[in-house]
Every structure is written in C-alpha cells, then in structure tokens.
Amino acid sequence: MTEPQTHQPPAGTTDAPGHVPGQAPGLLAVVRHQRKVILVGLVLIVASFWFMGQLGEWRTAALTAFGILLALLNHVATELWLGRLINSGDEPTRGTIAASAVTRLTVLSVVAVGAAVLFWPNGIGLLLGLALFRLIALVMTGIPLLKELKRA
Question: Which of 30, 100, 122, 129 could hold 64 in an S-S bridge, CB 3.0 to 4.6 Å?
C-alpha cells in the first residue's frame, strides 16, 4: 500500500502572512490573512448604523450589525478550521467536511432565527446583515479563484 501524497511547499516558505506551512494556523494568522474581508465587515457595520440611524431605526441597525458580526465570526471560524484541516496532513472525508459545516450553520441559524423572532419586526435586520455579508464575502473570496482559473 502506498500512502497518499500530500503537497508540501519548500521549507521556510509561507502561504499567508505569519503562517508557516505544516503548522496549523492560529487565530491571529487567520485574522491577518482575512483582513480585507474583516475590514469590509466593519465598514458594513458602520454603514448599517449610518443609514438606518438617519431613519431612526437604531434597533434595526444594531441587529443588522449583529448579523454582520455573526457572519464575520462564521467566516473566520470556517477559515481557521480549513487551515487546520489542510495543515493536519490528513485526507478529509466528505463526512468530516459536511459535519463541520452542518454544525457551524446549525448554531448560526438557531442564534439568528431565535434573535430575529425575539426582536421581531426589527429582527429581520439580523437576517439582512447575515445575507449581505455572506454575499460580499462570497464575491471577495471568489474573485481570486476566478483569476486563478483564467490564468491556468
């Protein structure tokens, strides 16, 4: 039997600032690597207060900001989990990936829907914040992938 081949970059190289290949990335390394997405999330939080605050909807603005914050935490947790999975050297199974995603999304959904129902009708802002951040994060992470595919 042969062991599965894993791609190991040359020793001493890094694929993310502050990250050493073969070593599981820490929270700070993930935050540094995702700084643009985090910055966009913070701008969206400020924008939600700025726009909705002018309309006198402070509660909706706060819940929208909370939704953006929840989505941002989910994004960072996903990146941290993926970085640790990739650097573990183990070959992930579909079941492992699905179980992790379902667990994270279940917790996120229960918190989001619970808060939306608890603070209804302003709670709809929380769901708006989740959806808005997810859309922007998807575009921001998808563009580099599309550029890479175009180059290949």
Answer: 129
